[in-house]
Write a structure and sequence with these properties.
By secondary structure, this protein is an alpha+beta fold. The protein has 2 domains: 135 residues, Jelly Rolls (Sandwich), CATH 2.60.120; 79 residues, Orthogonal Bundle (Arc Repressor Mutant, subunit A). It has a 5-stranded mixed β-sheet with strand order 2-7-4-5-9. A 4-stranded antiparallel β-sheet has the order 1-8-3-6. Helix 1 packs across helix 2.
Length: 230
């Protein structure tokens, strides 16, 4: 229970709630443990509540009928998922998968709606976070529609090295351990195309690829590719 309470206290929605309210929410949550690669929520299924990462790391994604995956967000402890479904009561908008062995808490929809009515600070914090996430999705849509794969990969790596990766919350080392498959899923591409883009950036002197790691050597060159100047 202490671990759940601590995770809830880190959620932006709940930071201004009194301890008694946090503990009441903790008592009404359902804990779910998931092994790496295991689905926690499935896109299109009935809303299972507001998810809160207690331990580990999860990925929110959508998949095409052909099996292509687009990662929408990577989340660590104290971060929420399935927020939109809890608000409108509709189906889960994405699939949530454990990126490593993880523990999540699911807050029932009625519990959250009750908090919104009783504590206006909850709804204000939700609007702020949802606006931030909406902007990041708009940026993602722009990247996919207006930029080449090389530019999208360069923009992703540039954001990582600058510590401003809008698709990642609460996972400080997510970019350190990023794989080619991760980059493909984050940029809406496929691994083979991303591999060629990375090779081009390496030949240009922007990055160095090592085992399970991509090191940025020259951010200025990377920025030129990110902005379509090369």
């Amino acid at each position: 229970m202490n671990r759940v309470t601590q995770a809830l206290q880190e959620v932006p929605y709940f930071r201004e709630l009194p301890d008694t309210a946090i503990k009441n929410v903790a008592r009404r949550t359902r804990l779910r443990e998931a092994k790496a690669g295991q689905a926690i929520l499935v896109q299109g299924q009935e809303c299972a509540g507001l998810g809160v990462v207690v331990a580990g790391q999860v990925r929110v994604s959508r998949s095409s009928p052909e099996g292509r995956e687009q990662i929408l967000r990577i989340l660590g402890p104290g971060r929420t998922f399935n927020d939109a479904a809890v608000i409108d009561g509709k189906s889960n908008p994405g699939t949530v998968t454990a990126a490593e062995d993880s523990v999540v808490a699911l807050v029932p929809r009625q519990v959250l709606l009750g908090l919104i009515q009783e504590y206006p600070s909850v709804s204000a914090a939700m609007l702020h976070l949802l606006a931030y996430r909406l902007r990041s999705v708009v940026d993602l849509t722009e990247d996919s529609a207006l930029h080449s794969v090389v530019a999208r990969v360069a923009r992703l790596l540039l954001r990582c090295c600058e510590g401003d990766q809008p698709l990642v919350e609460g996972v400080p080392d997510a970019c350190v351990r990023i794989t080619q498959q991760d980059i493909a899923a984050l940029t809406g591409s496929v691994r083979e195309v991303v591999q060629r883009a990375l090779k081009l950036l390496e030949q240009a002197g922007a990055i160095r690829m090592a085992r399970a790691r991509i090191q940025v050597l020259d951010a200025a060159i990377l920025r030129e590719y990110a902005e379509g100047q090369r």
